[in-house]
Structures are given as structure tokens and as C-alpha cells.
Design a protein that fits this description.
The protein is an alpha/beta fold. The protein has one domain (about 1-295): TIM Barrel (Alpha-Beta Barrel). About 40% of the residues lie in helices and about 15% in strands. Strands 3, 4, 5, 6, 7, 8, 9, 10 and 11 form a nine-stranded parallel sheet that branches. The protein has a two-stranded antiparallel ribbon with strand order 1-2. Strand 9 (about 230), helix 10 (about 240-250) and strand 10 (about 255-260) form a beta-alpha-beta unit. Helix 5 (about 115-125) runs parallel beside helix 11 and helix 10 (about 240-250) packs parallel to helix 11 (about 270-285). The longest helix is centred in the first third of the chain and has 18 residues, at about 1-20. The radius of gyration is 17 Å and the shape is globular. The N and C termini lie far apart (about 55 Å). The structure holds zinc ion (ZN). Zinc ion binds near residues 96, 98 and 163.
Length: about 300
């Protein structure tokens, strides 16, 4: 009984964390907005500013080369959700490689927070993609982090080190205060470097997608662009790849950012869904790009 209670608690916690990463199975955009506390409403005006500018003064920690958005009002971290240009049928599939800082024992017990098959399929299908990786994930799977981070098909963006909350409440995730939040971002970039990943970009996805102006202010010196999404795949804890594919295909518009996951443990049908999504979107005239290409437009 102890075991089943423990397991149920663990599943609930993981469910909460992942749901925050883009909604649970079957969530619509509207439902996501409700569940997420409408992050767009708390975003500064910069969220709607598509004008890109090269990162002028890269800070320690954040890699520089990729295009970033200009800071928002009062220097707040800018937020990107999707490219608004309608002329070009491009779409970015993004994959959150989630692992919370306290999940080491579960990985040691054999739980798979990685998804090598998914990465292999993205390579085989030649789908350039952006992986939002936690530092803890890179520590657990350094060979995979290096392999992804040295493959031009991919870019690695920052999904925090700990996968804790940058704004509270956030699906029950433990909260970081401003200074800890800032340090957590640096610690993730450091973990990528330690693993040997070089294709890193100065983009940051808030755990659970939860943020407010305080969180954007806390990260202002990190010189990152916060990246949200406009299409929720619903792959977290999904059992039916067809339903995930349908939800994505129904939601994608030119310039969309789709949030999915790169963890077998909590998103077991993502690879199968990708097998269905990719050829169909190509048939509709879409081209797959990394987030950096969308932001650079
Ligand atoms: Zn996440």
C-alpha cells in the first residue's frame, strides 16, 4: 500500500509538472489558457513585438549567436509566442526535455525521462527542432545532450535547471525566488556546456509556462528570450497518438510554435504522433524550422 500511495503521489506530481508544460491530454487552446492562468494576459507588450534584434551584449551563461527579441518595457525579458507573418508556412515543433531536480532516484529506478526514439525519428524525417532541456535532464543523459547539442538538426534551449516554478503558484511546483530563478537559468546553461552541447540558444521556457512581470524582471540580465507556444499538442500522458496528431494539425497556423515533450515516462506516444504530423503538415505546404528561424524573421 505504501508503494501504491507513493506511486500515486509521484504520478500526480509529474502530471502537474508536465501539464504545466503545455497541457494534459486533450486540452484545447482555450482550456490551456484557463489552466495556465492565461499567460498571454500577464505577458508584457513585447510579446506581440515580432521585430528581432541580434543579441548585442551576450552575458555570461547565455549563448549568443541566435536572434533574440528586443527587451520589453523597463528592460523586461521579451516573450515570443509565435511568428505573426502569414506569408510563409513555417512551423516550429518544440520538445520539452523535462526532469525535475528531485527525480534522480526515479531515473535510477529505471524510469525513462528521455526519448531517444523520438530524436532518431526527428533526424530520420529531417525535422529541424528546438529542444527545451532542463539542466537536470542534461546531467542525467549527458551523451544524449551532447548528441542533440552537436547535431545541426537541433538547437537546445533552456527550460531551467530544476523545473521549479518561476511564478507561484504553478501546478504545485516548488517556487524559486528571483535570485534563485536567475541562478537556475545559468546552472542549466552550465550543465549543457558540461555535457558538451554546443548548439545552444538564448531562449528560455518557463516551467509550466508560468510567469509574470517579476519573473521577466528576474531574468532580464540573462539576456534570454522567453518562448511560449500557441499550439498545445496534449501529448502529456496521452495514450492515443492519433488524437495528439489531430490536435496539432487542427491548431497549426503559419508561424506556430507547437509544444510537445521529449520524455517517454510522461509523454509516451509523442514519437508516434510526430510520425503522423510531419508528413501531413508537409502535404499542406508547411516547412519545419527551429524557433531561432521563427524569431529571426
Ligand atoms: Zn517542462
Amino acid at each position: 500500500m505504501t508503494i501504491s500511495v507513493r506511486k500515486a503521489a509521484a504520478v500526480a506530481a509529474l502530471s502537474a509538472a508536465l501539464a504545466g508544460c503545455g497541457g494534459g491530454a486533450g486540452t484545447s487552446d482555450a482550456a490551456r489558457e484557463a489552466r495556465m492562468g492565461s499567460p498571454a494576459a500577464s505577458a508584457p507588450a513585447s510579446a506581440a513585438t515580432p521585430s528581432a534584434s541580434a543579441a548585442a551584449s551576450p552575458q555570461a551563461g547565455a549563448p549568443a549567436k541566435a536572434p533574440t527579441l528586443a527587451p520589453g518595457p523597463n528592460g523586461l525579458t521579451p516573450v515570443f509566442e509565435r511568428a505573426k507573418q502569414q506569408s510563409d508556412k513555417t512551423v516550429a515543433l518544440t520538445f520539452d526535455a523535462d526532469m525535475t531536480s528531485d527525480q534522480g532516484p526515479r531515473a535510477a529506478d529505471g524510469e525513462h525521462f528521455d526519448n531517444p526514439q523520438l530524436i532518431s525519428t526527428l533526424r530520420k524525417l529531417r525535422v529541424p527542432s528546438t529542444v527545451f532541456m532542463t539542466g537536470r535532464w542534461a546531467e542525467e543523459y549527458p551523451d544524449q545532450a551532447k548528441s542533440i547539442g552537436t547535431d545541426p538538426n537541433f538547437e537546445i534551449a533552456n527550460h531551467s535547471y530544476s523545473h521549479h516554478a518561476f511564478k507561484s503558484p504553478c501546478y504545485g511546483l516548488p517556487a524559486l525566488d528571483g535570485a534563485a530563478a536567475r541562478a537556475d537559468v545559468d546552472r542549466a546553461f552550465a550543465a549543457f556546456r558540461t555535457a558538451g552541447a554546443v548548439n545552444t540558444v538564448p531562449y528560455f521556457r518557463f516551467p509550466g509556462g508560468c510567469y509574470d512581470d517579476d519573473a521577466l524582471r528576474a531574468l532580464s540580465t540573462a539576456k534570454v528570450t522567453a518562448v511560449q507556444w500557441d499550439v498545445v499538442s496534449g501529448d502529456a500522458f496521452a495514450k492515443d497518438p492519433g488524437a495528439v496528431a489531430e490536435q496539432v494539425l487542427a491548431g497549426v497556423k503559419p508561424g506556430s510554435v507547437v509544444v510537445m515533450h521529449c520524455t517517454r515516462s510522461a509523454a509516451p506516444v509523442t514519437e508516434e504522433a510526430v510520425q503522423r504530423i510531419v508528413p501531413e503538415l508537409r502535404k499542406r505546404g508547411y516547412r519545419f524550422v527551429k524557433v531561432s528561424e521563427l524569431i529571426g524573421k
